[in-house]
Design a protein that fits this description.
single chain; 149 residues; 7 helices; globular
């Protein structure tokens, strides 16, 4: 198989790959929130109303579920990215600048992963795509015909 044919096949699968990426990222984020709010997965539950941990857990749970199913993906991803940036800069960076040094690898990866979804959208396999077919497969508008100045 030539490189061009392989590239074409992979390009056609981008929406599916993006959809699977969104599902996995949403599942991981939802599990973080569930662990914080309900004390699952060998983690002690954060007391109700405990700032910022309980509120972050609720947001992780709700926004992660929205990303997981592909509803309001860009908004939920934007909120999630911001929350993870906040977590990184307020809780981790004081212990060193690099994520491996300060224990902030997960917030840094979540922050950038959700930022990717803000720009690329939900991809395939989203509930929004089932409700409104063609919603996730929109193309960028074509440039207007005429001369370019």
């Amino acid at each position: 198989m030539s490189t061009a044919r392989l590239n074409d096949r992979l390009t056609r699968q981008q929406p599916l790959a993006l959809g699977l990426y969104r599902i996995v990222l949403g599942l991981l984020f939802t599990s973080e929130g569930a662990a914080t709010v309900f004390g699952l997965l060998d983690r002690r539950a954060s007391p109700v109303g405990d700032w910022p941990f309980w509120y972050a857990g609720v947001t992780e749970l709700v926004a992660g579920a929205l990303v997981l199913v592909g509803v309001a993906t860009r908004g939920a991803a934007f909120l999630s990215s911001g929350i993870m940036a906040f977590a990184y800069f307020t809780e981790h960076q004081k212990d060193g600048i690099f994520p491996l040094q300060n224990g902030g690898l997960a917030p840094a990866l979540f922050c950038w992963g959700f930022l990717l979804l803000v720009f690329f959208g939900p991809g395939a396999l989203s509930l929004a795509g089932l409700i409104r077919p063609g919603h996730t497969a929109r193309r960028a508008p074509r440039p207007a015909a005429g001369r370019v100045s």
